[in-house]
């Protein structure tokens, strides 16, 4: 399968690397120092499941060099995928599948603003990984998974084929019965812990063991549930109970990637998480005061990060 990975960081570098290792024809879009390093040394993946290097790795920053792919995997941040889809439009054919792996609840909607609906799959991933250095990816925790499906949850031939390819490439491919519910379950976790984590600057475990902060985490989650339900997603009280349990089970050192971006003063997915909840609340007539406080408190810093 011809696969294009746009964004060769923690997520794109890991999953793209595993697909290349399994023998697929993978092209990586990378830039600057990362592109240079991948061209010189290959793509180096350090992984708790076994290190490997893809050398030579096909890497470029010029889409005119790229043949039309069967599958595009986005490894960028959520706020970048709409522009990236515009950038790729000329090489996307009727058959190309486009799979977003970003955290966030509306990635497939953003892609459909630019690409025909039939190209777009819904999805996300579970992994703990990061770009350690240019051309070097470090997967440091968790057995990685890609969870995905058709927008209408049909168990189509292409989705089942992709699942098989993923399962034969050293990570799990999961096609749930309701991919939208699965997306919201992950989103509710990441949006709940990332913003407050960025504000308090302590780990998820430390927030949870503080009664007051645990209460704020719970209120954030309840507002997210209200938005999900207003959008017609089956996010019920049992899902909320599982969310609390999941947050409570995070280790005392655990942080999310967006929390780390906020703390480091890098552009973050704040707008795609708490900001999205606030925006949807206004649109749907649902009050979201806790998400709004977190969002507004962090927004000046976010603007600063984007200026530099
Ligand atoms: N990391 C994790 O453990 C997890 C992350 N996620 C989600 O996955 C998504 C990606 O996150 P993550 O992989 O951590 O992010 P990274 O920052 O590690 O990776 C993003 C990559 O995209 C590259 N990039 C950005 N703009 C361009 C461009 N114009 N051209 C080429 N390359 C570009 C960056 O390059 P450069 O390095 O040069 O800036 C970077 O390597 C996010 O939505 C995140 O929330 C989900 C689950 C787990
Ligand atoms: C918490 C985690 C690692 C789970 O996959 C994640 O999604 C992130 O850090 O962005």
TrEMBL record:
Protein name stated in the entry: 2-dehydropantoate 2-reductase
Transmembrane portions of the chain: none
EC numbers: 1.1.1.169
Reactions catalysed: (R)-pantoate + NADP(+) = 2-dehydropantoate + NADPH + H(+)
Gene3D superfamilies for the chain: N-(1-d-carboxylethyl)-l-norvaline Dehydrogenase, domain 2 (1.10.1040.10), NAD(P)-binding Rossmann-like Domain (3.40.50.720)
Keywords: NADP, Oxidoreductase, Pantothenate biosynthesis
Cellular component terms (Gene Ontology): cytoplasm
MF terms (GO), sorted A to Z: 2-dehydropantoate 2-reductase activity
Sequence ranges assigned to domain Ketopantoate reductase C-terminal in this UniProt record: 178-299
Protein family (similarity comment): Belongs to the ketopantoate reductase family.
Enzyme kind, highest EC tier: oxidoreductase
Residues in Ketopantoate reductase N-terminal domain copies: 3-152
GO BP annotations listed: pantothenate biosynthetic process
Keyword Coiled coil: no
Function: Catalyzes the NADPH-dependent reduction of ketopantoate into pantoic acid.
Pathway named in the protein's UniProt entry: Cofactor biosynthesis; (R)-pantothenate biosynthesis; (R)-pantoate from 3-methyl-2-oxobutanoate: step 2/2
